[in-house]
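User: I'm preparing a small set of examples for a lab meeting where we compare how different chains pack in three dimensions. I only have the primary sequence for this one, and I'd like the structure in C-alpha cell form so I can line it up with the others. Please keep the answer compact; I'll paste it straight into my notes.
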Amino acid sequence: QVQLVEFGGGLVQPGGSQRLSCAASGSIFSINTMGWYRQAPGKQRELVAAMPSGGNANYADSVKGRFTISRDNAKKTVSLQMNSLKPQDTAVYYCYAEVLTYRGADLKKIDSWGQGTQVTVSS
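Assistant: Understood. Below is the C-alpha cell output for the 123-residue chain.
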C-alpha cells in the first residue's frame, strides 16, 4: 500500500504565493514521476507540473514562469511553489506519483494519488 499525504492549500489573495508539499510512504521500491494535477469545478483534472526521477520538470503552459516543482528523492517528497496566483488557479490540487511497489516477490507499477487539497485564490 502506498499513501500520498498533501500539506498546504487554503485561501490566498490574487498575486500571492502558496506552497504545497506531498510526502509518499508505504510499500515503495522506487518512484518514477512525481507531480501535481488540479481540478476546478466543472472541469477535468489537468496536469500542473511533473518531474521524472532525475529528469527535467514539465509544466502546463498556464503556470509556466509562476509555479516551480521540486522533489527530494531521498525523502520521497514533492513540492509546488506557486507564485503570482490568479483566480483561475483556484482548484483542488492533487499530488501524483508513479510508484514501483512490492507485490509479494514481484514489483508492480501503480499510479498513486493524494486526497487533494483546496487552493482558493480570491480577494
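A couple of notes for your slides: The radius of gyration is 15 Å. DSSP finds no helices and eleven strands in the chain.

User: Perfect, thanks.
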